[in-house]
Amino acid sequence: MASPVPHTFPSHSGTAGTSPGGCPAALGTRAPLDPLDLFDDGFVRDPYPWLDRLRAEAPVHYDPGTGLWLVSRYDEVRRVLLDPTLFRPDNALRAVTPLPVAALRILARAGFTLPPALANNGTPSHPGLRRVVSRFFNAERVAAAIPVIERVAEDLLDAARSEIEATGGCELFSSFAQVLPCRVLMELLGIRGVAPATLIRWSDASLELFWGRPTPDRQLELAELVGEFHQWLTDTVRGDAAPPTSFIGALASHRLPDGEPLDIGTAVAACFFVFIAGQSTTGQLIATVLRRALTEPGLWQHVPGRTGLAEAWVDEVLRREPPVTTWRRVTARSAELGGVRIPDGAQLLLMLMGSGSDPQVFPHPERMRPYRTNVRHHLAFGVGRHRCPGASLARTEAAVALRVAASRLSGVRLEEDRTEPPMLDLLSFRAPLGVTVSR
Ligand code: HEM
């Protein structure tokens, strides 16, 4: 664990170097002496002390390590999300670690492009494309999907229970948390012709390639997987096997504002994002929800019998420890934010996780209190024009996962006596990669 107050936290008396869209010293804001490393294991395992100090001392802070402006307070994060004209979404999917030519070649061979479609789309085609997605995940569809989610959860947890009976323990991240959202998404969107394990591998590779800090060799491996994924999506979108009622079928009949059909590249880009966003993030959420529930005194025992407790617990985890920890925006022109002037083209990193621990909005943020009056006011799903259209599905899947796990595996405990599990440590995604339980 990192020390409670990181002694290497940036002070504000030095000057930082200049960079395009950066140069805080020239703009008169406070600049750090020591770099905060957003990928450092200490930060990833225990980011709270850093997030607290950022909010308190440098709520709009230029990070020379990444060239990003970190925005940490709830009010400012919300203001940015609600103004997509000034704070554009165009950089949402840009690779955090620049791709070497060899990796770009691999992607080019697979025909990989990511034209504006959903999260990175600030153009007039966005509302219509978003409607196509939202139709598949509206409240009615999600409510109708509950029996499917329960069936898949029970199926996976029966296997986990047998393993626990046979061996004394089971790892629930890879056997349950990751698989449940993937299988549910495949059913809801009518995805066929690929194994869940392959979809999970492709999706994880995409997250690591675009949001991670992989070595050049690892970038090549990841680019191969992402290329395969993109190629498969392209073949599926081009082929005529998708039923009209499936997501791909709906994209094929979609018309752009000018009446033209969607080009293949944009349809593939929409699928690419939805297939990743629709499962990886929810699997990460379920892993954290389970770990937190297993270590909170009394919670595991009470979840099955208390109506609404699983749902409220999921939202409290989303507030305090969301899987999507940050999200990016770029300024369309110079702007003032939290008393700091930021330049045209500045890349912002919205600290969604930090905003959920803002004591101005959530008193005693460190306490897990599922019955807070504003338990759902967190920004874990964003807000405004690009707010996550899968929020209802993600919440429902995580609550069902917790309820079914707590009732089917009632006597288990978290294996904590050995080392902590590895953490997913990407710029925008964070979660424990293991939930090992035993009798
Ligand atoms: C715990 C799970 C999830 C979290 C924490 C999450 C979080 C987010 C966040 C922070 C955004 C960006 C919002 C913004 O820019 O204002 C987003 C966008 C999006 N999410 Fe999710 N998401 C989750 C699950 C899902 C699921 C299950 C789906 C689909 C089934 C999904 C589909 C999308 C799409 C399509 C967008 C882009 C929307 C747009 O630009 O209009 N997400 N999500």
Could you characterize the architecture of this molecule?
The chain is of the alpha+beta class and about 450 residues long. It has a domain of about 290 residues: Cytochrome P450 (Cytochrome p450), CATH 1.10.630.10. The chain is built from 17 helices and twelve strands. The strands form four sheets. It has a five-stranded mixed beta sheet with strand order 1-2-8-5-3, with helices on one face. A three-stranded antiparallel beta sheet has the order 4-12-9. It has a two-stranded antiparallel sheet with strand order 6-7. It binds protoporphyrin IX containing FE. The site of protoporphyrin IX containing FE has 29 residues, from helix 5, helix 12, helix 13 and helix 17.
N→C terminal distance? 27 Å
Q: Give the overall form.
A: globular
What molecules are bound to this protein? protoporphyrin IX containing FE
State the name of the first-level CATH class of one domain: Mainly Alpha
CATH superfamily of one domain: Cytochrome P450
Listing every helix as H and every strand as E from the N terminus to the C terminus, the arrangement reads: HHEEHEHHHEHHHHHHHHHEEEEHHEEEE
CATH architecture group name of one domain: Orthogonal Bundle
| Number of strand elements | 12
Number of helices: 17
**Overall pLDDT level:** 91
- Strand composition percent: 5-15%
Which structural category do the helix and sheet elements fall into? alpha+beta
Strand order of the largest sheet: 1-2-8-5-3
- Contiguous uncertain segments of 5+ residues: 1-33
CATH topology of one domain: Cytochrome p450
For the CA atoms, what is the radius of gyration? 22 Å
Described by strand count, sense and barrel closure, the largest sheet is: 5 strands, mixed
Helix percentage:
40-55%
